Amino acid sequence: MKKTIVKLTALGLSAVLALGGISGAVYAGAVGNNGTSVRLPAAAEKLTASSPAAGPAACRDETVYVMAGADGTVEKVIVSDWLKNPEGLALLEDNAVLSGVENVNGYEAFSPSGTGRVWEANGGDVYSQGTSDRDLPVDVSISYTLDGQPITPEQLAGKSGRVTIRFDYTNRQYETVTINGKTEQICVPFAMMTAVLLDGSRFANVEVDNGRVYSDGDRLAVVGMALPGLRESLGLDEEDLEIPEYVALTADVTNFELETTFTAAVNSIFAGLDTDKLDDAGGLGDSLDELADAMDQLMDGSSQLYDGLGELLEKSGELASGVDQLATGAASLQSGVNELTSGTAQLKDGSAALQAGLDQLTASNDTLTGGAEQVFGTLLSSASQQLAAAGAQVPELTIENYSQVLDGVTASLGESPAARQIAGVKASLDSYNDFYQGLLQYTAGVAQAAAGARDLTGGAESLSQGAGALSDGAAQLTGGLQSLQQNVPALVDGVTKLHDGAGELSDGLDEFNREGIRKIIDAFDGDLDQLAQRLQAVVNAAKDYRSFSGGSEADGQVKFIYRTAAIQMES
Question: Which of 395, 417, 448 is at the close of a domain?
Fold first, then answer.
């Protein structure tokens, strides 16, 4: 059960990486081919007479672009900030520690103030960009092997053979907290998603660790997910639960070349979790302990019942004595069933808490798909601007029509450089569309899992009712055995049949105990309360980490996009 809970949480958390993955494409529209910033056209906001004078932005939406070499070595860090100004302040305070700051979507100017600046916002939002030399919260290291031997990316270009590309993530952002009187380091829970686009004419027989492969016939898209540091933060052993901390792909390659790879890192899914329901974890742990005790007694009772009936059949001369033992076993069975009834009632409450958690995860589906659709719109808008800059007049691009429109423009331009540029824009949109459709499938799967949880809750209710019925039956069995003591001779034939049935019951209970109850108990290992505390600490760490550049806004969010250099053969 513990594995199921954490895996479902991990799955939902990993999916939010989609929001970060999108931003890499957005960045391409705001940065020129040589890495310099490009100002996008926007109308200047006008200051109204009623606008408040000055103050901090209400929220900072921050995207950190990490430009890296093919091995993951960081070469440049660019920070893009959206300072939201819903109160229409004339001046916005910006405490981000950045170098080379400039406005990238408007005409607002700023004045230095301490380590930051004050923007002349004129009542509107501010979109800025700068660079940073701060240490990143998560390091991404990329290694390569050719036919099992390590090789540098430069040496690998143009080679053929069985190639493995591995992305390792090291989470270095943590908080120090106290759990059960012990000082612990809790990592900020970053979910990592790496996307790699492969040329189908060069790559074949692709296998992925902690990810999936998608194909459109000519190209292969590899998408992998990992949660570095989460298992340690939750205090779980690797044998108890496998939470991926790397992504690796292996393929047969001819004349190796690799396009740019993108890795997104976000912590927003944990920051949005409601931890009020974590208090139920203690009650669920108590229920499992009581269930284990009741199960032990029930097993003891069933064994005594079976042994007593066997002796009764083999030694009819000792029938009375055997019936006495049987009656004693039945009394033990009654006691065990009564405790089982109590345990299943609490288990029912625990399953209801699990359903509530899954329902909460399902509630995030609209946010995920809505965010993905919103960024798709941004991509399409960026594409429209690029087309306009190229002199192409096209209708408004939408998710439904962009492919047909761009194909038409490309066809009209023939073999010109502009046609190839537009084809590249369409290829990027197609790649993101593949991801977007996969996200829709994921959210549908989460909703289906929540429906399954509701079925589980119904099953727990049925189990509780069945345990009550079993308790009533055990009481009747005890009464019947008392009558049996008075009427032994007449019941020998019936006892024979009861003996056979008791054997099947004992075997069934043993299997249920080994395959069901014991696996649940072993998974929790009596440590559910501490797990709840650690999960609370993980959520708090996610909520506390709102900015990379040091902005002091009361609200905000940050995502990281790691972009690696392409590996190409020398021309």
Answer: 448
CA distance 252 to 250: 7
Q: Which of 155-164, 213-222, 470-479 has the lowest mean pLDDT?
A: 470-479
519-539 burial, b for 16+ CB within 10 Å, e for fewer? eebebbeebbbbbbbbbbbbb
Handedness of CA 526, 528, 529, 534 (dihedral sign): positive
Place 226 in a pLDDT band, splitting at 50, 70 and 90: very high
Tokens of 307: 């042994």
Residues 255 and 147 reside in one and the same domain: yes
Q: Both tokens of residue 527?
A: 């440590």
Residue 82 maps to a domain: no
Confidence of residue 529 (pLDDT cuts 50, 70, 90): confident
Asked whether residue 155 is assigned to any structural domain, the reply reads yes
Helix (H, G, I), strand (E, B) or coil at 538: helix
pLDDT of residue 310: 66
Range of the domain at 384: 366-448
More confident residue, 161 or 115: 161
Residue 246 lies in a domain: yes
- What's the structural domain count of the chain? 2
**Residue 444: inside a domain:** yes
pLDDT for res 491 = 52
Distance CA 125, CA 139 (A): 32
Among residues 21, 19, 14, 17, the alpha carbon closest in space to that of 428 is found at 21
Q: Dihedral sign, CA of 26, 31, 37, 39?
A: negative
| CA pair distance 503, 207, nearest whole angstrom | 48
Rounded to whole angstroms, the Cα distance separating 199 from 218 reads: 7
6: which 2 tokens?
Answer: 């954490």
Per-residue pLDDT at 435? 81
The sheet carrying 149-150 orders its strands as 149-150, 138-146, 161-171, 246-253, 203-209
Q: CA-to-CA distance for 9 and 161, rounded, in angstroms? A: 38
**Are 146 and 255 members of one domain?**
yes
Among the candidates 399, 414, 448, a domain finishes at 448
Higher pLDDT among residues 390 and 148, named by residue? 148
Q: In terms of pLDDT, which residue wins out, 374 or 568?
A: 568
Contact 227, 245 (CB under 8 A): yes
Within this chain, do residues 143 and 262 fall inside the same structural domain, yes or no? yes
d(CA 505, CA 302): 7
CATH of the domain at 263: 2.60.40
pTM: 0.54
> 269 near 443, Cβ under 8 Å?
no
Q: Look up tokens 């399954």; give the residue.
A: 452
Nearest in space to 406 (alpha carbons), one of 378, 397, 374: 397
Percent of the chain with pLDDT over 90: 32
Angstrom distance (rounded) from CA 28 to CA 371:
18
